[in-house]
Every structure is written in C-alpha cells, then in structure tokens.
Design brief:
Oligomer: single chain
Family: Belongs to the UPF0751 family.
Number of helices: 4
Structural class: alpha/beta
Organism: Iocasia fonsfrigidae
InterPro entries: UCP020408
Shape: globular
CATH topology: Rossmann fold
CATH architecture: 3-Layer(aba) Sandwich
Strand order of the largest sheet: 2-1-3-4
Protein name: DUF2325 domain-containing protein
Number of domains: 1
Length: 98
C-alpha cells in the first residue's frame, strides 16, 4: 500500500513505523510551504493520505481534502505523534488490511 504524508518538516521515526506496519511506498510533503500547494494534485497510485494537523496551514488542508474527495482516497487526520497516528489507523481498521 502507498501512503502520502502531508505536514511536518521532519517525520522522525514516523516513516519507519508506517513501513513496519506494511506501507511500502511513502511520499512526504511538508505542509508549511504555500507554493507547494498552488497546483496540488495527489499522485495517481496513492491508497491513503495522512495529514499531520499540527504542521499544516488551512489552505493546504482544504486543497488536500478536496483532492482526496475527488479521487476517492481515504484521508486520516492526526497529530504528529506515533500514538495518535497508530490510534487513527487502528480505528479505520487499516492495520488489519495491510
């Protein structure tokens, strides 16, 4: 499965942790740069989007939400802590599907 992480300048151990639970392709896009979201489009082969809410501006969040809805891609919103991310993945039962 592929995952796009949006937000945060540095992922730290989050990238390693999502690989450990089964995501094979991970794309990271910082949420601070407004220029990165001017012509934002999700990659075609993305299965899920993870938005780190404490490191993204509102305009970027709206664009990501709209693009994911148009392409019918599942979006998870979480804070930048592994416990919060894991809990959200668990609620969506993503961990059992990978």
């Amino acid at each position: 499965m592929s995952l796009m992480i949006i937000g945060a300048d540095n992922l730290g151990s989050i990238e390693e942790n999502v690989r450990d639970i089964g995501f094979t392709e991970i794309i990271h896009l910082s949420g601070r740069s407004k220029s990165a979201f001017r012509n934002f489009q999700l990659p075609v082969d993305i299965d899920m989007v993870l938005v780190l809410t404490d490191y993204i501006h509102h305009t970027a969040m709206k664009k990501v939400k709209r693009e994911a809805k148009d392409k019918k891609v599942d979006v998870i919103y979480a804070r930048r802590s592994w416990a919060a991310i894991y809990k959200k993945l668990e609620r969506r039962q993503v961990l059992n599907c990978i």
